Amino acid sequence: MQNSETGTARHAPMKILVLGATGPTGRLIVRQALDRGHDVSAVARSPEKAKDLEPARLMIGDVRDENVLRKALKGQDAVISALGTPASPFREVTLLSTATRALVNAMKDEHVSRLVCITGMGAGDSVGHGGFVFDKLIFPLLLRNVYADKNRQESIVSNSGLEWILVRPSVLNDKPSHGSIRAIADLSDFHGGSISRHDVATFVLDQLQSDAWLRRAPLITS
């Protein structure tokens, strides 16, 4: 099993756009980014859900709209996508790939190159490494359609030509930070795990200023 440190090559404050900022992981990313001194902007559909994200700069709009994204991207240094979607066992899911395609186009138009995108354990070549319950029950019964769209999302990102990093967290929990994050490339001996949302936020923010995982897709776990 190959582990890697997160790496923090540069520490200068950045201007960051966060998508999915009103979700449970996105909120922690915004809070930690502000604590690090970054200038944070976010796109959200609901002003009510986003009002507690201040002092982050808010833009109300649909993340699938390229025009909204282009406006939000002006002057930004990097983007974090923490977009998520509920389990959808019966209906096709398209939000993640549609929004990501619009994002990549808008980033190219606005000359913003760094993208850190959260997907999940079970996407791409991490499929089948979640352990028995996740792989045999949760994934096929609840998450099959969500992960079909995550795979489309990952393909869009990896073929974008941007400075991208795909982050695949193991099963998320709301516990306090564990304090130790394993970033894994070789999954041959990995069969399930979990990680706190706090640690995911930490790892994701570290990737804004590190090339340790540039154009790669680490699975992260505690």
- CATH homologous superfamily (4th level) name: NAD(P)-binding Rossmann-like Domain
* Overall residue-averaged pLDDT value: 94
Gap between N and C termini, in Å?
A: 14 Å
Q: CATH class, please?
A: Alpha Beta
Whole-angstrom Rg = 16 Å
Secondary structural class:
alpha/beta
> How many alpha or pi helices?
6
Structure description:
It is built from six helices and eleven strands. The protein is an alpha/beta fold. The chain has one domain: Rossmann fold (3-Layer(aba) Sandwich). α1 packs across α6, α3 packs across α4 and α4 packs parallel to α5. The longest helix is centred in the middle third of the chain and has 27 residues. The chain starts with a strand and ends with a strand.
List the defining traits of the structure above:
222 residues; alpha/beta; Rossmann fold; nine-stranded mixed sheet; 11 strands; disordered N terminus
Secondary-structure map with pairings?
Blueprint: E1 3-4, E2 15-19, H1 24-35, E3 39-44, H2 47-50, E4 57-60, H3 66-73, E5 78-81, H4 95-110, E6 114-118, H5 132-158, E7 163-169, E8 171-173, E9 182-184, E10 194-196, H6 197-207, E11 219-221
Parallel strand pairs: 2-3, 2-5, 3-4, 5-6, 6-7, 7-11, 8-10
Antiparallel strand pairs: 1-9, 9-11
Summarize the structure.
This protein has 222 residues and is an alpha/beta fold. 35% of the residues lie in helices and 20% in strands. It has one domain (13-221): NAD(P)-binding Rossmann-like Domain (Rossmann fold, 3-Layer(aba) Sandwich).
